[in-house]
Amino acid sequence: MSVLREKILNVASDLFQTRGINSTGVDTIVAVAGTTKMTLYKHFQTKENLILEVLKRHNQEFRDWLAEKLGESSRTPDKRLQALFDYIEEWMAAPEFRGMPFLKASAEFPNEENPVHRLSTEQARQFRQYLASLAQEAGASDAETLALQLSMLIEGAMLAEQMRRGSGAAKHAKKAARVLIEAALKR
Amino acid sequence: MLHSPWLLKMLEKSGSTPRERVLALFDILQDWTTAPGLRLDSSDAGLSDPNEALVDYLTEQMTVLRLAEPGVLARQVYFIAMGALQATRGGENSNAFIHGRHAVAVLLDAQRPPRRLKTGMAVVSASIFLLASAMFFGLGIKSVPPNTMTAFSTKADNDMLFSIHASTSNSPDQVASLHDSLERIRRGVCQYPQALMLAPEARAVFLENIVNGLVPANANQMREARQLMQKVECYYAPVAMTAL
Q1: Looking at CA atoms only, how far is residue A24 from chain B in angstroms?
Q2: Contact B87 A155 (CB under 8 A)
Q3: Does the beta-carbon distance from A176 to B102 stay under 8 Å?
Q4: What ipTM was estimated for this complex?
Q5: Which residues of chain A lie closer than 8 angstroms to B103, CB-CB?
Q6: pTM of the entire predicted model
Q7: What contacts A25, CB < 8 A, 6 or more positions away?
Q8: Dist. CA B168–CA B234, nearest whole Å
Q9: How many other C-beta atoms lie within 10 A of the C-beta of residue B30?
C-alpha cells in the first residue's frame, strides 16, 4: 500500500473521530497529511470512499483485537461471553477511545440510502452476529435475543461514554450483562 | 427527545407502579418511532444530549422500588433504551424495544432485595419510617422514648444489656467511627429488616442509635450499636454517579 494512502487514511481516521465526519473537510485532511487534494482523489476518488475505507479499517481493527483477546483466553464459552465485557470496558477506558465508529457514522448519515449509513448498519449487524455466535457457543437458548440485548447494552453504554468521558458506563453495562447472560443461560 | 418533559409526562401516567412506568419507556419509544407521520429522525432522539432528566426520573422510580443501586440500574435502563433506539435506526430491528423491555424486566427482577425473595415478608422492604411507625404506634411495643438521649439512657440503665458500666464514657475514636458509619448509612439506601428479630432492648438501641442516628452516651450502648450497625444492609451509588 502506498505510504501516502496510508498517511491519508490515518489522518482522516483521527480527524473523523475527534471532529466528526461531516465537519472535517478534504482541505483539512490534505493539509494535516501534508499532501494534495489530487493525491487524495487519486487514491480514494471521493470523500465518501475515504469515509468507507476508514470505517472498514476501524471495524477490522476492532474485530481483530477482540478476536485476539478472546482467543487468548482458555475460558469456557460462557466465561468468554462475560469476558467480552471486560475487554470492551478496557477498550472504552483507553484514552484514545472515541466511540464505536459505526455508531457515529450512522448518526452522522441518517439517510438509509447513503452508502456510509448502509455500511455502518451492516457493521452493526455483523457485531450482533458475532455476539450471537458467542451466545450460542455459551449455550444460550435464544442466542439471537441475548445478542440483541447485549449489543443494545454495549451501544448504549458507548454512546453514554462518548457524551461524558469517565461516566463509568462500561462498568455498569458489564454488571447488567452478567445478569442478562446468567438469565439467558438458565432458561 | 429522550429527556423531554413530554416523555417524562407520558411515563408518569403510563402505569400505577414504578416498575410499570420503567418498562413503559420501551412501549412509548416504540410507539413514537413507528407512529405514522411521526417517524423518528434519529437526530431527534437525543442520543447525543447530555441532559440527565430521564436518568433522574428512572433513578427516582428505582429508589421507590427500593432496588439496590438505583442510580446504576437507572443508567443501565437508559443504555438499553439508547441502544434500542440505535438498533432501530435505518428501520432494522423493529423488535428491539420488545427485547429491550424484556432485558430491563430481567435486570429489575435480579435487583430485587434478596431477603424479600427469601422470606416473602412484605414488611422487610418497607421504608424505615413505616417500620418505626408500626413499632411505635401499630404494634404497641413498650415505650421507647423517641428522641431524647437522656430519657433513653435512663431506661437503658435498667435494662440487662446496659446494666454494667452504664456510665463509662466513650472513647473519641469510637465516637468518630460511629459517626462515620452513621454518615455512610445516611448516604445509602438502607434496609433494617433485622429490627423485627431483635430483643426489645436491642431493638431500642437499634431504633434510637442507628435508625435515628443518635450517638450513644455510654460505651456499652456504643458497643451494642456498632454490632447492630453491621447488620444493616445498605446500597451506595458510586461516588461518580452521585456526583453527576
Answers
A1: 19
A2: yes
A3: no
A4: 0.80
A5: 149, 152-153, 176, 180
A6: 0.64
A7: none
A8: 30
A9: 19
